[in-house]
Each structure stands twice: as C-alpha cells, then as structure tokens.
Amino acid sequence: MATTEDSIQYYIAEVRSYDEDYTFKYPDETGKKRLKTPYDIKFKTYSTSPISDFASPANNNIKQIPLIGEFVIVFQSISKLSSDRNYKNKWYYHPTLPIQDSGTNNSKLPGITRGIQVVPTTNAQSTSTDGKAEKTIKLLQPYDGDLLIEGRFGNRIRLGRTIASPPDNAKPTIWKTGQGKENDPIIILSVDKETGGNDLYVEEIKSMASSLHLTSTQDLSNSYELSKQLTKSNSSNGSEFIGSADKMILQSKVGPVVIDAKKRLSINTNEMLIGSENASSPIPKGDILEQILTQIITAINAGVIGPAGIYSTPTPGQGSLAAAQSLLRQLNSKKFYIDKE
Fold first, then answer.
1. C-alpha count within 13 angstroms, C-beta hemisphere, residue 149
2. Is the Cβ–Cβ distance between 26 and 19 less than 8 Å?
3. Which of 220, 230, 298, 295 has its CA nearest to residue 264?
C-alpha cells in the first residue's frame, strides 16, 4: 500500500457491506471519528494480505452504488482534512467491475474474499448475496460513437446519432434517417420492464414500458402505434419530442399549462373530460346545433295560423330573426373541430 502524497496504488476489492439507512453519520464501532457518507461501502481487498475499510465514491456527481459481493477498484487519496503540512488520506472506489459480462442485477463471484465457496445462481428470479432479487437485464445495442448509461434495473439513456447503414452484425436502429443525414444527434431515455439474457436490445417505443425520444431529424413513425391514425399530422419533418407510457401526467403547480402549436393541435381520444373527472355536461356539436337553430328560425319565419284561420307572420320580430340567421352562419369555428362520433 504505497500511497503517498504523489502516488496512488489501486486494489481490487469485494463489497462486504453498507448501511441501508443512507445517511451522513460518524461511525464509532472502530473508534475512529470519520464522516460517513450515504454512499460509503465496506470493502475487503482481493489479495493475500487483504485490507478492510470503508470507501466513498470517487465521483461526487455520478454515483454507482454496488451490491454486496460485487467488485470495485479502491484507492487512497487526500481527504478534506488534508492541508499543506498534514496529509490525511481516505479510501475511494470506482464503479463496479463488469465481471458478470451482461446487464445483470447480481454478482458472479460473491464471497470470494471471505474464503468460502459460493455457487453463483443463473436463475433470474433468485436472490443475490445481499438478499435482493436478481434481475437479468437486456443490454443496449451499441453503435460506434454512442454514449450509453445503463442502470441495473432496465433504465437507460442513449446519446446517439443517425446511422444510415449499421454494421452487418449489429441490430438495425429503429430511428431512420428521415430528412436528415448521417451523424444527426438523438437522445433516448427509456425504461424496460422485460428481462432478457445476453441478447442486445434496441429501443422501440411500442415495446418499452416508458420512453422519451428527443430527435433532430430522425423518423420514428414506424416505432409507435397510435389509437387513431394521423391523416393530417403524420409527416416527420424536423425535430420531434416523443413521449410514451401507460399513463401520462402533466402538472403545473402554480402557473398555467401552455401548449403552443403553430399549425395544429390533434388530440386522439375516445373521451375527454374538462374541469374534473365528474364532468357530465356534454359539449354541443356545432354542425348539429346549426341545423337545429336553422330549423327553428325557418319555422318562425313561416308564420302561424291564428284564430279563425287567419295567417300571420312575426312582423314585429322580423329584424331580430334576420340578425339571428346572419349570426348563425358564424356559429361554427373554422379552426376548432371535434369528432362527430
């Protein structure tokens, strides 16, 4: 352990334990008054002269919390108690070593630093060494230049691009070139509830639990299915913001919700409730209302047969009827429509 102020030595270590209360505190079981972070692990190095201690994440901004039985790279470096005259070291750890070879919520060599034999399981529904359920996760299909962030449980972020001709041994992308060109950027955030083996995975909107696609020029029209086909807004020109889930909630806590569409707002739904889910007053259909009012005005203009069979027309109200008939032609909006069904 030749760690000095100008050199660092790295060790392979197994994660032995961690506190699940995830709080900041000073542990006193070792007699050392040392600040513990919610992300600290207790480790034991994989060597003939093992070292056991606590370690904190080596990156404050991006943290990957390992499972018990997984392996990390640990090293000693300066702590916040160091000064120009006093070197105070502490242990840090890098993200988990990919010993499992696939996106799996388990560990392949649990207990190897304990001197005991643990037979790893291959059952995706079994429990891992820390009692948590194992889950075999599909890995994203990589393409050259991608930046992929994959969580343990099927949550992913892809910072990718348009690929006109994927390699022959790779799965084709769901996003097509569209109106753009090679290397146009795309961002995909996705959550997948399905498990899988070593098969690589490409994000397809209709098969994922939920997803968010931020495109620049790509065409994803073949990747999703709408309840009703678009006939006026089905073009994929320019960038798109595509979100998909079993349920979607958009809430403004204080201010208004603004939906600004320069051309058209299309809402595909079988039922729309405005005000609350107890709404019971139906919205009148403009074309039907126009027909009803036209029939009423026509009947009034036709006059009536009074006493002794004398025919009369509503002469005193003739001007009002003419005005009503004129306004009736303006009843229906030229911009806002509802389905006739």
1. 9
2. no
3. 230
Q: What is the CA radius of gyration of the chain?
A: 34
Nearest to 217 by CA among 183, 252, 253, 262: 183
The count of structural domains within the chain is 2
Please write the tens of the pLDDT for every residue from 268-282.
888 888 888 888 888
Tell me, what amino acid is at 119? V
| 211 within domain boundaries | yes
Q: For residue 125, what are the domain limits?
A: 1-136
Can you read off the two tokens belonging to residue 227? Answer: 């309840």
Residue 270 token pair: 């079988």
In a domain, 318, yes or no: no
pTM for the predicted model, two decimal places: 0.73
Kindly report, residue by residue over 94-136, the tens digit of the pLDDT.
Answer: 988 887 655 555 555 666 666 544 444 443 333 344 545 666 7
- Within 10 angstroms of residue 204's Cβ, the number of other Cβ atoms is 16
